[in-house]
């Protein structure tokens, strides 16, 4: 038996329980509501706010439902943050109590562990949640989310930290003029032991891709550091095959909700650089190292020292694609 829920704060409690931190809300209006020729799912006049959880959870819920009544799409951060004011992955609370999946165009396997909450963002789209018996490290949760997303054929980009999804009691205007109410149910499934989920969900086997080929690299020598001068680096990731960094995607403004997670860049020991972004928009564009290189141009600084001059007179920055 499922218990239908019509208010965002009921889902907040299911996911966050008595944890403390800051709840983030994100809202915006579909551009096509005022400009019929605008691209699909282009959000304008976006607003992001932080709320103290759990003291302000009801106020946050009222705000989200109120925004929906003004023809605005409404989202919430699927985990809490340590400080108010930003939704950076580095600001994520160190532990979470639930896993999540944006099923997108995929289908979660019927043999998989049943979710404890289901949000229907439209007639054919679902967000699934698995409440856990105890908090787990955010890094473990993100890794599990990605395994689940691969298994379900869902949106891998939404598996990361800083993701936002739709709360119940709001409205989905993505297909305007068609509008879809966002509904949700709490299932009768008890909270899952993390170890049980770890055993039940298969390891995510990455498909071979041209951008991460293991063939020996025989191209020109490339210094990866030259391409990182104008990129925000979130951290280095251990990799036995070379070096790897988690970065903010150059196309982060195209990610739903401006999600800053899920993008990596690296260089194999043999010299070959690569770029990968989990987000749906980047995946559909097929963006590779070549596209990244075009956006983040290599910079060279030359000092001009004319003959007979006592000291250099000019520095010139040269960018090469």
Structure description:
By secondary structure, this protein is of the alpha+beta class. It folds into two domains: 3-200, 2-Layer Sandwich (Alpha-Beta Plaits); 210-320, no CATH class. It contains six helices and 17 strands. A five-stranded antiparallel beta sheet has the order 1-11-6-7-5, with helices on both faces. Strand 9 (171-172) and strand 10 form a beta hairpin.
What would you say about this model in short?
This protein is of the alpha+beta class.
Keywords:
321 residues, alpha+beta, Alpha-Beta Plaits, five-stranded antiparallel β-sheet, four-stranded antiparallel β-sheet, 6 helices, 31% strand, globular, disordered C terminus
* Average predicted confidence as pLDDT: 85
Distance between the termini: 58 Å
The CATH class of the largest domain turns out to be: Alpha Beta
Helix content: 10-25%
SSE arrangement:
Layout lengths: L2 E3 L2 H9 L4 E10 L12 E11 L3 H13 L3 E5 L17 E8 L14 E4 L5 E12 H15 L11 E2 L5 E2 L7 E2 L1 E4 L7 H7 L32 E4 L5 E6 L15 E6 L4 E5 L2 H6 L3 H7 L2 E7 L9 E7 L1
Antiparallel strand pairs: 1-11, 2-3, 2-4, 4-8, 5-7, 6-7, 6-11, 9-10, 12-13, 13-14, 14-15, 16-17
């Amino acid at each position: 038996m499922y218990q239908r829920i019509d208010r965002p704060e009921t889902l907040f409690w299911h996911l966050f329980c008595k944890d403390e931190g800051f709840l983030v809300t994100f809202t915006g209006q579909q551009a096509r509501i005022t400009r019929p020729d605008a691209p699909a799912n282009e959000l304008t006049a976006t607003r992001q706010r932080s709320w103290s959880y759990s003291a302000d959870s009801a106020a946050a819920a009222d705000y989200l439902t109120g925004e929906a009544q003004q023809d605005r799409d409404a989202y919430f951060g699927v985990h809490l943050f340590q400080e108010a004011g930003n939704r950076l992955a580095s600001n994520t609370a160190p532990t979470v109590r639930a896993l999540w999946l944006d099923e997108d165009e995929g289908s979660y396997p019927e043999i998989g562990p049943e979710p404890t909450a289901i949000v229907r963002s439209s007639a054919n789209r679902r967000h699934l949640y698995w409440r856990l018996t105890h908090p787990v490290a955010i890094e473990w949760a993100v890794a599990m989310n990605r395994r689940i997303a691969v298994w379900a054929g869902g949106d891998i980009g939404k598996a990361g930290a800083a993701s936002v999804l739709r709360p119940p009691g709001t409205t989905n205007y993505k297909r305007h003029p068609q509008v879809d109410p966002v509904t949700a149910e709490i299932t009768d499934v008890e909270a899952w032991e993390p170890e049980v989920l770890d055993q039940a969900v298969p390891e995510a086997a990455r498909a071979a891709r041209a951008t991460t080929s293991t063939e020996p690299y025989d191209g020109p020598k490339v210094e990866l550091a030259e391409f990182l001068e104008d990129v925000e680096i979130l951290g280095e990731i251990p990799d036995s095959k070379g070096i790897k960094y988690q970065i903010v995607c150059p196309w982060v403004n195209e990610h739903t909700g401006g999600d800053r997670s899920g993008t990596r860049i690296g260089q194999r020991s043999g010299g070959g650089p690569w770029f990968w972004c989990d987000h749906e928009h980047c995946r559909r564009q097929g963006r590779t190292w070549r596209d990244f290189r075009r956006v983040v141009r290599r910079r060279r600084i030359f000092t001009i020292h004319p003959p007979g001059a006592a000291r250099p007179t000019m520095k010139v920055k040269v960018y090469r694609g």
